[in-house]
User: Fold this.
Amino acid sequence: MLIRAIHANLAQIFLHLPNMAFKDTLLYVGKAVLFGLIMAAVFLFVTPLLTNNDTSNLFFQKRGDNGFELSFSRAVRRAAPAVVNIYSLSVNPNQPLNSGSLQGLGSGVIMSKEGYILTNYHVIKKADEIVVALQDGRKFTSEVVGSDPVTDLAVLKVEVKVEGDTLPIVPINLGVPAQVGDVVLAIGNPYNLGQTITQGIISATGRNGLSSGYLDFLQTDAAINAGNSGGALIDTSGQLIGINTAAFQVGEEGGGHGINFAIPIKLAHSIMSKLIKNGRVIRGALGITGEPISTVMAQILNLPDLTGVMITGIDAKGPAAQAQLTPRDVITKYEDEVVPGVEMLMDRIAETPPGKQVTMTIIRQGKYFEVPVTIGEKLSEDQQ
Assistant:
């Protein structure tokens, strides 16, 4: 509005000038000069605000007389104190009075002021007594609150016994999912060398089927070596976006291929909450195996499209058998939600509390049916 008003006033002034070409030239030049003055004023006004804002120096930090240099040290300072080293205390049965030796197992992340720590299940599964070492030198013995082999996650808990003492907590924002191309930092204790930071990008998201159908891994080229497992994958603001878990292996070769995986924090946080509440993750089960609809099967079964999951196998003692589902039935809806593929269906079944009755829409011999099914519980290997 200000620019329009000034432009109109200039136009009125130039209308009284005698030479038409001269008036047009002055008007053109006046507009350019006016625009330049306004942009200069905006720049002078905004620059002090930016330089005084903490976020402006998030990546560029002062380095002596060399001006500003790219650095992620601020992000590391926010998150690194909450990344712990996890050790197993081994005691010689022939000398039980000795204090024992510590063996490095991996890493973990302090998630709350109550002392809950997220790590990988494979890090602690063979440990008799677990010791957690903080970066400030403090050491705590910990108890296992719960573990979930399916997602390779476990929750530990440490008790702060000194009054007024606190634990560093990692920053989290569950509402901002990681995206391909994001710069990330992996923090952990590789090869028991002490806390180490590696840097890379998110190479891909939604990498599932690597250890179970319940995972959607973040793939990164930030180095994740032995001992990094259970550590933090953070973004450039220092917020936790994943729990480092594995490096891609080819045959007998170890990692080092630039293909590493982390469990997304939203999934990890959900599993953590369930482990704290129940000590384990309770999953629903339908007792089926299934596969996506191929073009050939769509024609054979007279299906309208490729949406849904075709049942290929049924557990004779499972909920699906009791509901009289049969192989070649095609599940198209689960509780009125369209089923686009196998992963979505299995996730919805796993998230359903055992004992709840759900309604599924199926296609059998070209006809639609609604089938009520009471979901069972998926048992772990030690429960079977």
About this structure: The chain has a mean pLDDT of 81. The first strand starts at residue 60 and ends at 62.
